[in-house]
Design a protein that fits this description.
mainly beta, four-stranded antiparallel beta sheet, 1 helix, 10 strands
Length: 174
């Protein structure tokens, strides 16, 4: 085998393992909801605290861009154009969701590069937009959790909870 073949094989092995159902350190979930015939889907990794603190260490460092879960960046797919948090217009399509966690509010980031690993190659120039959401104290949540719930009219509420905090924002279809 040539050196080039060995390098290619070494680089491809983890990708193939993942594609073939390789073991992940965190389970993955899909939250989905249909609102007036339009669909919202959020795919994300669910890390557990396992005795750690979520927002003070390396899991989701306060003040830094975080992938909102584990492994790949969290992926939001909208089947139709929608408004996020009352301000950000998002055309139908798929996006990566990131956040910058803070003590009293999080900056939510909607990025046009939907498929990316973590936040390692996050590119601010690819942001569709950002918005602020307040932090709420909540009951202890061991695994990072994203939930979608139908709200009034043609909208839904996205709730993200982990440790003892939660944030939420509405998605409203046109």
């Amino acid at each position: 085998m040539t050196r080039r073949s060995l390098l290619f094989s070494a680089a491809l092995t983890p990708v193939l393992a993942l594609a073939q159902g390789g073991e992940r350190k965190s389970p993955h979930e899909t939250a989905s909801l249909e609102v007036d015939g339009k669909r919202i889907e959020i795919v994300y990794g669910r890390p557990s605290l396992k005795g750690r603190k979520a927002f003070t260490g390396s899991i989701a460092p306060s003040g830094e861009v975080w992938r909102l879960g584990a492994d790949e960046a969290t992926k939001l797919t909208l089947s139709a154009a929608a408004t996020l948090n009352g301000t950000l217009q998002a055309p139908a399509g798929s996006y990566a969701l990131f956040a910058i966690p803070g003590a009293t509010s999080w900056t939510m980031i909607v990025n046009k590069t939907a498929n990316q690993w973590g936040a390692f190659k996050y590119d601010k120039a690819q942001d569709l937009g950002r918005f602020q959401v307040p932090v709420k104290k909540t009951a202890m949540t061991e695994e990072f959790t994203i939930q979608l719930a139908k709200a009034a009219g043609n909208s839904a509420t996205v709730t993200m909870a982990w440790q003892d905090v939660a944030v939420e924002f509405p998605i409203q279809f046109a």
